Amino acid sequence: MLKNKIYKYLSAEIFKNFITILLTFSAIAWTVRAVNFLDLMIEDGYPAIIYFKYSLLSFSSIVTRFVPLSLLLSLIISITKFERQQELLILWTVGLNKIKIVNIFFLLGFLVAVFQIILGLIINPFSLNKSRALLRETQTKQVDSILKANNFTDTFKGVTFYIQEKNSNNELINLFIKDVNGSLNTIVNEAENANNTTIFSERGIVSENKLILFDGTIQTINKKKELKNFNFKETELSLVNFSTRTIMQPKIQETSSYILFKCLTFKNIDEKYLNCPSSDNKKIVIEALSRRAGMPLYIPLISVIASFLLIHKQEKKNNYLKKYIIFMFAFIVLISAEISLKYSGFSTANFILYFLLPLFFIIILYSILAKNMISERIK
Questions:
Q1: What φ, ψ does residue 288 adopt, rounded to 5°?
Q2: From CA 303, how far away is CA 310, in angstroms rounded?
Q3: Where is pLDDT greater, at 24 or 97?
Q4: Roughly what angle, to the nearest 10 degrees, separates helices 59-84 and 124-137?
């Protein structure tokens, strides 16, 4: 009964440190990324609520990046704390088996690995695809924030704006609009076949999803290279047909794992996600699946490596340096696993090897741990 309480206490302390470190790293990284996302409002004119939703939906993918490192730090910090407060010495004195503590660390690593697999395979693709759909389905743009005085703006694809100034009533003075994408074809019937349109206007205002222009000229060049000019007192320019340069197509990390697995079979694939017959894309797909399902397998390996801190050495100098050596070794393992992802898609052998290597090293290192701990008990 007492031993069970001790095991629960150790697990709770490690888990508490793990959550604290993970959330701290993730919050810092998310803040930096959210600042980078400000272009959605400043450059592309999306509303603030869309910006916040888009930023929040990326949080789970950031958390995934820091899970292995957070577990490693939490184990080392917790073990160092237990050792410094003589808690481990008391546990060894009362006859607590070290290998059971190692098993607890391994179990925690296994549970964290399952958590990351769920994040990688299910939650992250769903949330990231949801964020992309959010931009794709949002039509209302804050055009006022995009159009700046004395500045050429090419936020919209194929359309360039120039505004000489904005007055106190937020009116746009002396506008120049150049369209080479056919987005302005609907403003006048005669310009229906135009593929190059230029608009000069003395004044304009933005109202809802429309740009209302006053006193200006429309110059069009149709497909037959015929030039036409139209003068107007007032006209409305719909912004619905305008599309920003923001990428709307789902990226590989935003594609569901189910579709990626189907992609490997090259059958019944929705081409709006991936061009699966491409050999280059196959490598990318395998790399993505390795990151989602293979990278978490290195987490239990990290917990086994951290367990070497439980082995006692008589040399005090070695005991002091031990935690730094183990941390560096585990950190190198994580870096190597990250680098190896790039090569996992090169061949089937590389793909299988990436999944088998952590299992192989877990068996080897666990055996070494058990042997050393048995030797300590005999002594």
A1: -65, -45
A2: 12
A3: 24
A4: 140
